[in-house]
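Quick log. Single chain, no ligands specified.
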Amino acid sequence: MPIAELNGQGIYFEDSGGNGRPIILGHGFLMDHRMFDAQVAALAPEFRVIRWDARGFGQTRWDGKPFTPWDSAADCVALLDHLGIERAVVGGMSQEATARCAWR
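-> predicted structure:
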């Protein structure tokens, strides 16, 4: 169970590994990383697929403080940095699509 300590949170993530182009996926509201099971199965043979649980969802250890889409975008960037990934295809839906729009 990979947990990365990022921005004061214990961010849960799964990484398919491999040498393909990285794709990072952020789940929708009231969901978690598992919403992308079918996408990982389809994409992992050719891509490195990373999916994670946002603050307050799934297996991420969250401090319970309010957060914004900018915080979620910062968590995503911090996770990519933690994994040594400079560039990735970024996808999300619902709350995490909004967070991607907040990404600088």
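The beta strands are 3-6, 9-15, 22-26, 48-52, 89-92.
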